[in-house]
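Write out the bound-state structure for FE2/S2 (inorganic) cluster.
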Amino acid sequence: MSGIHTIKFRLNGRAVAKHVEPRTSAADMIRHVSGLTGTHVGCEHGVCGACSIVLDGAVVRGCLVFAVQLDGADVETIEGASDSGRIAALQAAFVDRNALQCGFCTPGMLLIAAELLSREPSPSREQIREALSGNICRCTGYEAIVDAVAAAAKVKP
Amino acid sequence: MTGATTKAVGSSHRRGDATLFVGGRGTYIDDVAVPGVLHVAFLRSPHAHARIVAIRTAHADAMPGVVRVVTAADLAPLCKGWQTSQTYPGYVLRTQYPLATDRVVFVGQAVVAVVAESRALAEDAVELVEIDWELLPPACDLEGAMAPDAARAHPDLAGNLAYQADVGDPENRALFDEAACVVEAAFRFNRQTVMPMETRGVVASYLPGDGSLSVYQSHTAPHQLRSLYATHLGLDEGRIRVICPHVGGSFGAKIHLYSDEVATVAISRLIGRPVKYIADRMEALLADIHAREQIVTAKLALDAEGRFVAWRAETRLAMGAFSTHPGSSVQEADEAVRLAMAPYRVPHVGGRLEVVFQNKNIVGQYRGVGHPIAAAIGEHLIEKAAAAMGFDPVALRLANYVPDDAYPVKTRTGIDLDALSHQACLRRLGEIIDIPALRAENERLRGEGIHRGFGIACFIERTATNAPSNAHIRKATAQDGITLSVDPSGAVRCAISVTDQGQGTHTVVAQVIADELGVPFDRVRIVSGDSQATPYGSGVRASRGTAVGGELALQASRELRAVILEAAAQLLQTGAERLSMTDGMIFPAGSEEGNGISLADLAEVVHFKPQLLPRGAQVSLSLSRHLGHDWPALVPTNGVQASLVEVDVRTGAVRLLRHWAVDDFGTIVNPLLVAEQVRGGIAQGIGQALFEELVYDPGGQVQNATLADYLVPLASDLPDMVIDHVETPWPHSVLGAKGAGEAGTTGAVGAVLNAVNDAIRPLGASITELPMTPERMLAALNRL
Ligand code: FES
Ligand code: FES
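---
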């Protein structure tokens, strides 16, 4: 099987090089090799969205992408999105609306919500619910998340 | 600090930890880093019932990177097995071991553990373990579980019945035979699971040098775990430390102790190295506690005026192969039968429960524990009776409630109830929904072929366990403890035994302390989840964080405030009774600001300049208190929910349009957090009503152990929810708070069940099997 591959990519704006097995998922590498544990693993089969990362500008599931596929790519995790300030309005709205409880789904929710708002600056509640429907939250019942995304959309960036 | 003196209790303080979580900076169990940690993976049973003839581990053992392959024989000297701590007279129990010994009794049971340098290597090596099985007939049929020729879940059982009990009044057929109206139904609540987003996990580190054990675990009750590991592994409890880091949801899944967790800790003891086990999602679906599976028959008799005359319910719960531990599996069925119809005056209430062994995973205590079923069966039959007799369902309830001013009462099934408010809650619901108009609109739409239904369910829950009357589950539920101290900087530190999984326990406790001490909210820091850092206590379960933890914080804060004022009085050379503290400033009543002293300055003196205080007893700005022995067994709460749905009679799909809840949680410390507990709970109740089912085939194989196939509610499935309250403070505590964590789940199941039936009743259809999937709906509508 294996052989170790060396990959080079940009991670949260910095050039990095990592040695990975071909079977290692991007989520596992980011968590356990890069130590960025905000990318959560809830199912490892592409259903829950907790492992969301931004790959070349698009939100993807880190558990469905192999680490080797990141070679040459531009990757952003929740830590990078948070530190850059680009999701600050969403984060503030999530805290203010208590749109999270355990916080396990939250990084994925924030990244997918940010993608929605970049595409559709004034989404309806139905559009928000639709956009969040690939991400499972077991704590909140979603309404507070929908409210928070709607509130963040009203904040001028 | 400004002079703001608004009370913290009653205001919607935001959670401090939320700012961590939105940056992805929580520390969950898989994020805990321990140098040199090894990884555990389990070979789990592919069979529902089989004898283990031989286990061959040589290939796995020889694989590079594998450290040890562990079987039951390796762990037998370390762990003698366990049964549930919550026993009942006549409860038949079978002993669980960390790994299956000679037989497997459900699909997913842990059989062999592999320890390796990485999780991937451990999983590879699991594939190399070979087991010879001799298949045994599985007991998986709930209806036929007690037939004389039924397969037995364990060969040495005389029968599959694990427990039976009659509760309340004995059956009196005459009451039903002579009643003006009798409604009855057979219900089936299918098996589901809990599904917190973070799976379970353990990191265990046993140090052979000094016999100390550190365990990190995704769990809600560190002290309980510490006691259990000491007992099950024969270790000195005083040398065990259990830490629960951020927990990615529990809802009951993480109040139990599982064999894979004991195995992981025992393995660290065996090999003397740190080991880590993180369940994957398939393991979680197979082996986290399952819930609810029961078949129920119930009937309600009414007189011609619509007064309830008699009620009877009988349930059979599919326990699985063992009782859960430490809390038992029985409670799900017992609460269901005991609490059905508890809101009402019914002269005759009786029931029976049977708990049966099955070759399926263990049914445990999931959010609501029996209460959702109690509410669903009672409220369904009330709405059915209203339809049959031509009564308005709201009026029928109002005519039969135990009046709000009649409490305390004891139910016919032996439950003490106090300070409930069914009348007020239903009246409040009627204020926020124009029910007649809504029903009229549904009627009008029916003319257009649109089938909408509106349903109500009210309920009682028993929350906030903390009682010596439950002392038979000492390890699960006993008491709680707090240590409060003032730092030299004047910051208040609280170490408390109740824990926080995101519901906001820390925030609520800090609010209570801020008010009772008279310090700003942001000067209070909470520590919990670490057995070494907090006094002994039960952790979180049964919605007890605010009701128990808040009351404990209140009582301890009042005592510490007295200590602080006494010390300040000595320094200011006045009487303590003349002093008060607000916003961290202590000053004599009626005096100008500036005549007082700040708590920070006082703390500075106490810590570093004690010579400024009079000679005598040393002043300590720190105290510990416990709460438990004068606390009632369980704090009852009540509420009512309503649901509006639309049924597509061609596809069988149920669309939720709106959901309402009015609850009585007594004193509300933080309205924002309470409302979100209710919403999250409602989502899970809706899951039970419409989506969630773990499907076993007759041979005991699970058909849908992936998250793609086990359906939980998504954002697009759920409606907006209106949350409102009636506040009847709990009269037996000072704070007056009751449990709020489970009410959402408890009321939602019955409300949705009733709404769906209201939609299809005019079509001559009814449905009493949950979840109400499109397929079951079409069958109910006779359209399959
Ligand atoms: S962990 Fe990747 S989608 Fe669930
Ligand atoms: S906040 Fe817990 S899963 Fe969403």
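---
Residues 85-155 of chain A form a domain with the DNA polymerase; domain 1 fold (CATH 1.10.150.120).
The CA atoms of residues 92 and 152 of chain A lie 8 Å apart.
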